[in-house]
Amino acid sequence: MKDGETMKIILSTRQIQQADQYTIENEPIASIDLMERASMAFVQKFKALYLNLFENILIFCGTGNNGGDGLAIARLLCQGQQKVHVFTIGDLENGSPDFKINLDRLPKEVVTSHLHASEDFPEINAKTDGIIDGIFGSGLTRIVLGIQADLINHINSFNAPCVSIDIASGLFADKPVGGDAIVQPNHTISFQVPKLAFMQPALHQYVGEWHVVDIGLNEGFISSLESEFKLTEVEEMRRMIPRRGRFSHKGDAGRLLIIAGSLGKMGAAILVSQASFRAGAGLVYIHSPACGLDILQSTIPEAMVMIDSENEIVSDINVLENITVIAIGPGIGTNDQTSNALHQLILNSTIPLILDADALNILADHPDWMADIPFDSILTPHPGEFKRLVGEWANDFDKLEKLKAICINNNLNVVLKGANSAVCDKDGNVYFNSTGNPGMATAGSGDVLTGIIAGLYAQGLEPINSLRLGVYLHGLAGDHAVEQIGELSLKASDIIDRLVNSILSLSRS
After folding, report:
1. Per DSSP, which regions of 300-381 are E strands?
2. In the chain, how many domains are there?
3. Checking DSSP bridges between strand 84-89 and strand 111-115, what pairing results, if any?
4. 21: CATH
5. In whole angstroms, how far apart are CA 327 and each of 313, 349, 390, 392, 446?
6. Which residues contact 439 (CB under 8 A, 6 or more apart)?
C-alpha cells in the first residue's frame, strides 16, 4: 500500500457485511445509494491510476452486488466521456435488486453484451483496452466453476491492464484459495478496509497493488468490532517514537548487549550495532570473538567491545549488570560451543532476549528450549527460519495460525519478516506492516532490523511496540533508500543511512 491510506483493523467478510448493514440502517442510507457512493470512490481512484490511458474500458459484471458496482462504475465513467463496454454474465432474472437498478440506469451510450457461452467472450487488446473486474465480490464462498471460470481464464490470458472492484473475482477474502479461476489484476481498489488475503505473499498475483477507498461506512461501528488482524498506522508510529527529557543521560536511553559475529561474519555485528545506535540506544556493548576486536573498535567507536575467550566463535557470555535487553544471533554460527552458550543464556537470563538469525537456527534444533526463553522476549525469523521453528504450513493462512500459536504458547513476540511483515504479540494479535519494498531483500537487511528493534526496546518501549515501530522504520528507511538508489542497488547499510530521516519524518509530523 503506497497511497497514504491507513486502516487499523482488518475485518472478516462477515464483519464487512455487518458494517454495510449497520451503515444502511443507522446513517440511514439506502443500499443503492451506498453502492453509488462506493462506485464514485472507485472511479476517483481508477482515474488517478489510469486516466485517459485506454481507448476502451471493458467492465465484466456478475449479477450480484459486485456486478452492481461495476454497472454504476460504467455509468459514471461514461459520464466522464470514457468509452465503456459492459459484459454481464449470470442469471439476469435472479440478479440482486441493486444490480437490476443499476442495469436499468445504464445510458444508451454504454454498449452492453450478455455472455451466454464462451463463444461470446470478447477479444481484448492489451495495448488499447483496460479491464474492470466486477464478476464476484468479497462475499464469494465457493470455488468458481463453469462459464464464469472460463471467463476469468479468458481475461487473464490477454494480460491487459486490469483493476478489480473490492477484491479479485474468485479470491476469498479471509480463507485459502480453492480453485484456479481467479482474476489476476494489476490493481485492487478495496472498499473501506483491506482484506486479509491482501497480506498473504502467495496471493500477490491475485491482488496486485492494492488501495483502500473510504465509502463512508460507520467508523464508530467498525471500531467496536474485534479483530486479531490489524494494519500498522502511521499515526500510531508517531506516538511511539521515544522522546527524551531535558535532563536525560545516556543511561536513560538503555543499556543494550549485542552478541554477534564470528570469523568472517563480523559485518553482521557491525550492522546490528550501527542500527541500534541510530535507533536511539544510549549504551551499546558488543560481545564478539577476539578476532573482531580491531574491526569493531575502529568501525563503531561508540560501542564498548567485550571479547570472548575464543578467537573465532562465541563460546561464553557474561552479562553485565543493568543491561536492559540482549540481542543475540547475527553472524554467530551454529558451533556446538556457541549453541551451549546460547542455551545457558536462555536458562539464566532474567531480562528479555531478541533472538535472530543463527540463534533461531540453533533454537530450531532444540525446540525444548523454547519454554525457557525469558518473558517478553522477541524472535525475528524470516520464512525459512520460521519453517525450521514450526514446521511446514499448508498455506499462508495456516502460517498465520502457527505464528499466533508460537506467540501465545510461549509468551513471545515475533515478527515474521517479508512483504507486509506480520508482527504478533503474546496474545495472538497480528499487525501487518505497510512500509518496505523488494529491494530490501538483500544480505544484512535482517541484521539492521534486529539492531533497530533492540535499540528501541532498550529505551523502554513495550516489546510489541518495539517490534511494530522497528519494522515500520526499517521499511520506511528502505523506501527512502529506493527513491534515491533503486531496488537493485540497495544494500543494508543504505537502510541505516536513511534511518535518521525516517525517524525525523515521524518525530516532526
Report:
1. 304-307, 325-328, 353-355, 378-379
2. 2
3. parallel
4. 3.40.50.10260
5. 16, 12, 21, 27, 13
6. 478, 481, 482, 485, 486, 487, 488, 489, 490
Q: Say if residue 378 is in the same domain as residue 494.
A: yes
Residue 109, classed as helix, strand or coil, is coil
| 100 in any annotated domain | yes
Which residues, other chains included, contact 382 with Cβ-Cβ below 8 Å and sequence gap of 6+?
Answer: 416, 417, 418, 446
**Angle at Cα 213 formed by Cα 6 and Cα 183, nearest 5°?**
105
Amino acid at 180: D
What domain range is 497 assigned to? 234-241+249-507
CA nearest neighbour of 183 among 127, 132, 112: 132
Q: Is residue 7 part of a domain?
A: no
Residues 216 and 253 in one domain: no
User: Distance (Å, rounded) from C-alpha 49 to C-alpha 509?
Assistant: 27
Which domain CATH number covers 476?
3.40.1190.20
Mean pLDDT by runs of 10 across the 509 residues of the chain is 57 96 98 98 96 93 98 95 95 97 96 97 97 96 97 97 98 93 98 96 96 96 95 92 78 87 98 97 97 97 97 95 96 98 97 98 98 97 98 97 98 96 98 96 98 97 97 98 96 98 87
- Residue 200 falls inside a structural domain: yes
Q: What would the grid cell of residue 1 be?
A: 500500500
pTM of the complete model: 0.94
Alpha carbons within 13 A on the beta-carbon side of 456? 26
The residues with which 355 forms a beta bridge, in sequence order, are 328, 379
State the maximum Cα–Cα separation within the chain, in Å, rounded to a whole number.
84
